[in-house]
Amino acid sequence: DHLEKLIPMVVKFTGVEDDELREYCFQAFEAFIRRCPKEMSPHIAMVTKLCLKFMTFDPNYNYDDSEEDEDSMDIEDGDDEESDDEYSDDDDMSWKVRRSAIKCLEAWISTRRDLLLSFYSSICPALLARFKEREENVRADVFAAFSTLLRQTRGGSSHHSLITAGSELGASRDQETAVALLKTQIPVIVKALHKQLKEKSLKSRQGCFCLLTELAHTVPGSLEEHIPALLPGIVFCLTDKSTSSTMRIDALSFFHVLLISHPPQAFQPHMQ
């Protein structure tokens, strides 16, 4: 009942130069979305706009001025040492703002499946662009949000979803369109993830496998042409000495899903 009074106040506080306050603002938005998804409808555009703005909020780091360039991942790794001299990571709380904004977007995705198509035009490209996120915890949340989008595309059983029986037909049409849109993004997704499968970060690699597993379930057969790119990452995760048993299980679980959701001939060149 009080959202109309509260929302403008929370929006105003996101403009204050205080990372902790901004983090709390997005946590409040997330709570509103999860508890009152229907009542938040009039505020979707504004809150989404704020989330998209602050999910890239990283004032102390330079991503080579190429937010939109997927190739930036090739050169990104070399920048770490330089920027570490300029500021202390301990003082940098901007990652908490990015994380809370991304969690807020995930709340929209998981509670409003009826808006799936609009999410593909607004939220999906923004999440893909953040696969290069430098902070491990935030990157894990980016992968989690994208995995939620994939589950909703598949027809997730979100008990919050506002779809009623009467709109099932429209929902099924939307789902087909969403899958078609997703297919166009698969090369971008694989290009970003296959590099991350050889990263030191176990959390990132687990996030990759979770996301790829959802992708194989959502669009069976869609990874066929990308199997040569993905296999070295799977092999690395199974043979790397620093890999935990949990990580190996995640790698094998994904490989199992890959095998059952793709034609056998796709694996013949790799049988050895």
Automatic annotation (TrEMBL):
This is Cullin-associated NEDD8-dissociated protein 1. Residues 64-91 are annotated as: Disordered. It comes from the Eukaryota. It holds the Pfam family TPR_CAND1. Keywords: Repeat, Ubl conjugation pathway. It comes from Xenoophorus captivus.
